[in-house]
Amino acid sequence: MNKKLRIVCLVLAVLMLFVSCNGKNGATTSSDIIGGNTNNSSSSTDNATSSDSTSDETPSGETPNITPDAGNEGVETERKLVGNAYTSGFPIVKDKIELTVMAEKTSMHGEFDTMAFSKEYEKKTNIKINWELFSTSDRNNKASLALMSGNPPDVMCMIDGLSATDIITYGGQDMLVPIEDMLSQWAPNVKLALEQNSVAKKSVTTPDGHIYSVPLIHSVDDHTIFPEKMYINKTWLENLVLPMPTTYSELLNVLRQFKNGDPNGNGQKDEIPIATSLFNVMLAGAPQGLAWDWTTDRMYVDSNNKIGYFMATEAYRDSIKFYKTLYSEGLCDKNVLEGKATVAGKARTGKVGVFTAVAGTTTLSEKELKNYTMLPALKSTADSKQTVWARQREKIYPFAFVITASALKDKNKSKVEAALRWVDYFFTTEGYVFEQYGSASSGFYKKLSNGKLEILPKKTDSDRYKIAPGYVLPSWYTLAAKNVWAEKDASKMTEADKFFRDIDEGMSNSLYRPLIQSKFIPHLFFTKVQSAKLNTLADPIHSYAYNTGLAFVKGDMNIDTGWNDYLAELKRLGVEEFVSIYQSAYNSYNG
Known about the structure:
Elements: H1 3-12, H2 31-34, E1 43-44, H3 45-49, E2 75-76, E3 81-82, E4 85-86, E5 97-104, H4 116-125, E6 127-134, H5 139-148, E7 155-157, H6 164-172, H7 183-186, H8 188-195, H9 198-204, E8 213-218, E9 228-233, H10 234-239, H11 248-260, E10 272-275, E11 299-301, E12 307-309, H12 314-328, H13 334-337, H14 343-347, E13 352-358, H15 366-369, E14 372-374, E15 396-403, H16 415-424, H17 429-437, E16 445-447, E17 453-455, H18 461-467, E18 476-477, H19 479-482, H20 495-511, H21 528-554, H22 559-573, H23 575-590
Helix pairs in contact: 12-21, 21-22
């Protein structure tokens, strides 16, 4: 598989187990989508849904015990007509209906109306989708604008464009349809996904017990769980006879040698010792044993379930001093550090000794890839215990799909039931592949004689997103869905293939996985009052913390004499109340 394609697929493909739909009473079977026959081993609805795997015994906010990776070949239910909708199989409705669906169209997507996915799924389901599309930049405000208009689309696929507060607010105003009592009959595969992932179920269940959304779930515990990775030029280490660094001080020594020792041997002082963003989670916090998250208001949770604000900790102070040394000694690319240039852009020059990168997106040429290996997770000192922040929270997007009150206007058409059936198929392995890559007849992949799938030569993401919408719709990605793809013949592997197999995936699993944090902050529900207060506090606190940290790094402020004043100002801005709101919501989540 193409290097870039494979990695992007792993990062963006979020969630899914697979169900085969029953083909009774004239219904088509799910094997009609992928092509060829599938051996379906369906369990009864009672057996599939009576599982007690959604147990509160899994501590909330800890790594869940997810068990669907053996594969779900389908929740089989009796096919019967209720109103205008069938309870299982295809087509979904007796008389053709139209659903208006809001979804994101990225710069890579083709036209949704004409892509193979839309045409084939309309034929299969007897449901025509009228797409209301929005750009990525509009994601955060599109949902609220549509709901406040009084005439929203029937279905909204928002990925993370809806917040927990939105769900409570609009659900409480009867603008969203509660679906918890409908899942058994109309979305048994979604129900199964929630039963097998207690964190996902808690994340979609409001404090009053309602479920208004279908999540997007990533149940594959592969290397993409590590959102940031560190790479080091092993050729430069060898040329200068330097050991692999394991601490801040050892890394600084290596970077000084990279700067002054001419490791690329061209006689010029053109090396960039390190390219990294300011306060990267692998270089700030992790070396001190704190796994914090930009997306949860810079909060972390410790082993005692106590929430803290990372930028008010000694770990933050320690990391500032490390970054200050990078900056003052000219060991880092200052434009990258200040967000004026990208890590990827600098890394592609081949003149960088160490760089941080989002999982699987190094974008180096094959010539340069052979020079790099993975840098182990650093310790701040030889005596400290480091950790690695993993993408636990981001494995679940709880509010990826909602049905609005607009779908209730003509109950004779069974739009709500049809919408649930429509999305439920994507919670099967087969449906996941179809939603992500289209059918075999779409020309992106082929089915091999052993039943595995293989991407056709020279096909890229640009081709893929002309065929199918992919991750902008909810789905359930599991090991079963990952394993439908054939392994590439080792003799045909490029240097890039080997790098991503052995370094990007192999070494991150061996070096980082043992250090993964055991607790994380999940998606939390806040009250309206709490949400309003968070919105008031967040920007002033974050802006002050980051900008003051940058001033400390650049030497515009003295961290030794100014630290206590910095903490006092954070307190004045309300950081203690900020943390207490998170603590209260986290305690409620844990019950």
